[in-house]
């Protein structure tokens, strides 16, 4: 399909009368990596949750290719089957092995036979360097390994769009690198990614575009070399100064 993978048009979202998203407009092209940056409460996570239909929007439109997924009549499960999501917490089922965690969605969402789903799960684990952990339960995996399993689960069905919400924030510092290296590989393979992150060096090196949110609005966006090195807006400069002090 031609055109943007994701189109967000004048999206508003409020909680208890407080506007969290205030007229967001954003396009994401095929194979593009967009890094959302901003302080906690700026709207990054809420924006990702609206795209995955975990939060209904109050106004505006969200389109996945040409499908208006913000239409309340849309089949939410069918939409989510086209989008891979990884959150801060790994959200793995503790009673299932790494392989079973990945295969579960393939069987229940995509209707794959157990044998085919298991084979796909094994291949996904190999892709993230965890072939030897297929039979391990989450409590036998490090935080970085659990997050890599979560990434494998998100990409196993070849989603059209991958949403990553601060996926390194719950990790010990020494484990951050292994997860970001995997995201770098996915980006190099042509995945379309929208990621909320506080890892500025990673955003600079991997993202095609950086989008700075403040108070539920997009204040500035552009190439990482522009936004992160020579931001135009004072609010962007103030935010980035926290990472330089």
Automatic annotation (TrEMBL):
Bilayer topology: Peripheral membrane protein
Taxonomic source organism: Microbacterium marinilacus
PANTHER family in UniProt: AMINO ACID IMPORT ATP-BINDING PROTEIN, L-CYSTINE IMPORT ATP-BINDING PROTEIN TCYN
SUPFAM superfamilies: P-loop containing nucleoside triphosphate hydrolases (SSF52540)
Assigned keywords, A-Z: ATP-binding, Cell membrane, Membrane, Nucleotide-binding, Transport
Record protein name field: Amino acid ABC transporter ATP-binding protein
InterPro entries: AAA+_ATPase, ABC_ATPase_HisP-typ, ABC_transporter-like_ATP-bd, ABC_transporter-like_CS, MetN_ABC_transporter-like, P-loop_NTPase
One GO MF term attached to the UniProt entry: ATP binding
Key word Metal-binding present: no
Pfam family, one: ABC_tran
Record has Cell membrane as a keyword: yes
Domain ABC transporter: 6-240
UniProt subcellular location: Cell membrane
């Amino acid at each position: 399909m031609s055109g943007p993978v994701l189109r967000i048009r004048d999206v508003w979202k409020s909680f208890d009368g407080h506007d969290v998203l205030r007229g967001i407009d954003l396009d994401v092209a095929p194979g593009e990596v967009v890094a959302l940056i901003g302080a906690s409460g700026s709207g990054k996570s809420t924006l990702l949750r609206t795209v995955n239909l975990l939060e209904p929007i109050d106004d505006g439109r969200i389109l996945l290719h040409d499908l208006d997924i913000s239409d309340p009549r849309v089949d939410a499960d069918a939409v989510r089957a086209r989008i891979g999501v990884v959150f801060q917490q790994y959200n793995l089922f503790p009673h299932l092995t790494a392989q079973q965690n990945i295969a579960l969605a393939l069987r229940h969402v995509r209707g794959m036979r157990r044998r085919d789903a298991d084979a796909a799960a094994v291949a996904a684990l190999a892709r993230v360097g965890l072939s030897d952990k297929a039979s391990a339960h989450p409590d036998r995996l490090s935080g970085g390994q659990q997050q890599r399993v979560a990434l494998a689960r998100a990409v196993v069905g070849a989603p059209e769009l991958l949403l990553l919400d601060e996926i390194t924030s719950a990790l010990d510092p020494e484990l951050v690198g292994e997860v970001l290296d995997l995201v770098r590989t996915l980006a190099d393979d042509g995945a379309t990614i929208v990621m909320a992150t506080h890892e500025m060096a990673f955003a600079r090196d991997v993202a095609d575009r950086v989008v700075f949110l403040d108070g539920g609005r997009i204040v500035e966006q552009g190439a990482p070399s522009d936004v992160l090195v020579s931001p135009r807006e004072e609010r962007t400069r103030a935010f980035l100064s926290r990472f330089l002090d």
